[in-house]
Amino acid sequence: xxxxxxxxxxxxxxxxxxxxxxxxxxxxxxxxxxxxxxxxxxxxxxxxxxxxxxxxxxxxxxxxxxxxxxxxxxxxxxxxxxxxxxxxxxxxxxxxxxxxxxxxxxxxxxxxxxxxxxxxxxxxxxxxxxxxxxxxxxxxxxxxxxxxxxxxxxxxxxxxxxxxxxxxxxxxxxxxxxxxxxxxxxxxxxxxxxxxxxxxxxxxxxxxxxxxxxxxxxxxxxxxxxxxxxxxxxxxxxxxxxx
Length: 243
Known about the structure:
The protein is mainly α. The protein contains 10 helices and no strands.
């Protein structure tokens, strides 16, 4: 199996770029949002005052959601033996969660952007939002947030198990959403500092994995080179099974 081709190198390096860019843009979207998003009807006034900031947050979030797609595939690609179930189950959950909580909600966010524009009757829109946000039909969008977070934790566990990239990077990647969930469960108020701290963990872990993707061999990324500490015999048997 010839993995040392320009196409493979291009895919691996582009994947590395998306792995680090997606969390950075995700952090920008979260930290620049003028509101928490807990009560869209009540947030319209604040969004009207910070209209340009809202657009930056929405645009960054949408671009992050797009880049997360190749990023997750790039991270799952080298996991072929140890950690396969965890990495691919987590990656699949993260992709579904990203589609629901990122791409789908971007349309809602753009609607809020227009609803908070100058000249719009915000009282009428507020009544609509007060009803719409309580309709259970929107539950899948909220569930997507939890799928995204849990998926990243499982993906990070699979990468750690497989020995893909630095172990500390996989730990930080999984710790970020886990810490965010714990703080939310125990009632810690989300502030710029707490959100920035969890985002920093996510970016640091992603940066470590992105560096590994950028500098590793094509054979390692395609899963045909031995993982850390794996005997050569295991590699030979795995290669024979693919022929």
